[in-house]
């Protein structure tokens, strides 16, 4: 059985999208996914594949670490 460490990938997709004054649909079309995918990603309920994460970072012309970051369960609790 696979152990769940409780780690997560958090993101700033919402912040970058709003700064560009884009809708979720416009961003979704630009990176080749559905509007629903952008919606759940912005709510941190979905961790994208590496390919999609790189597509989004490249679209916004920033390093992937500017938008996506790894959070260990231990780090969340201080």
UniProtKB/TrEMBL annotation:
Record-linked CDD domains: HTH_XRE (cd00093)
SUPFAM superfamilies named in the record: lambda repressor-like DNA-binding domains
Pfam family, one: HTH_3
Gene3D superfamilies noted in UniProt: lambda repressor-like DNA-binding domains
Cross-referenced PROSITE patterns: HTH_CROC1
The organism's place on the tree of life at top rank: Bacteria
Positions of the HTH cro/C1-type domain: 13-67
UniProt keyword annotations, A-Z: DNA-binding
GO molecular function: DNA binding
Keyword DNA-binding: yes
Name by which UniProt lists this protein: Cro/Cl family transcriptional regulator
Organism of provenance: Ureibacillus sinduriensis BLB-1 = JCM 15800
Phylogenetic placement of the source organism: Bacteria, Bacillati, Bacillota, Bacilli, Bacillales
């Amino acid at each position: 059985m696979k152990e769940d460490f409780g780690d997560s990938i958090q993101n700033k997709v919402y912040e970058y999208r709003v700064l560009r004054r884009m809708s979720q649909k416009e961003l979704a079309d630009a990176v080749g996914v559905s509007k629903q995918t952008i919606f759940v990603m912005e709510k941190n309920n979905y961790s994208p594949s590496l390919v999609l994460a790189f597509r989004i970072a490249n679209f916004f012309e920033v390093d992937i670490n500017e938008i996506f970051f790894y959070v260990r369960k231990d780090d969340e609790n201080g």
